[in-house]
Amino acid sequence: MYYRNIPYWVKNKMVHIKNKRLENNNQNEIGYLNINVFQYVLKAPIEGAIVRVSQLTVRGLYRENGLGVFINTNTSDQDGKVPTFKLPVLKEENEYYIVSVQAPDYHTAYLIDVPIYPDVTTFYDIYLRHYSSGGDPDYEFIMQPQIIRQ
Asked: Is 18 helix (H, G, I), strand (E, B) or coil?
């Protein structure tokens, strides 16, 4: 006997019929990524930092395979500002944006799973630690970017 209000199992995931989302087939949605690069201690802008944006697609039954595609690169100016990246919104749950920020004499920073939303600019302020700073480099995770609707 079938009860229409009871959830059912689909590929080991619990799905409820009433809560199912319809997919948006608009493939031309664009979002924006704005990055500023600063020194960790002095909070001074870093000129000449290289910012690379890549897309990672994870595949496989156990997510054991991946395909990375380089998308774009830009360099920071004297104010530490990088020109805004114009990126397509990712539709699949197994696709991610990865950003790397490199500057001479500084540790490299990586941003993994950067969110890009339609017609929204996502801002990140990246603080790079200089090689000469004392102690071992520690890791800081930026969990939520500042989001401004256009």
From this structure: helix
How many whole angstroms separate alpha carbon 53 and alpha carbon 114? Answer: 10
Residues 6+ apart with CB under 8 A from 108: 100, 101, 102
Domain edges within the chain: 28-130+143-149
Q: Can you identify the CATH homologous superfamily of domain 28-130+143-149?
A: Carboxypeptidase-like, regulatory domain (2.60.40.1120)
The pLDDT tens digits of the residues spanning 68-107 come to 999 999 999 999 999 999 999 998 889 999 999 999 989 8
- Stated as kind and residue range, the H or E segment containing 32 is strand 30-39
How far apart (Å, rounded) are the C-alpha atoms in residues 56 and 54?
7
Strand pairing category for 120-128 and 30-39: parallel
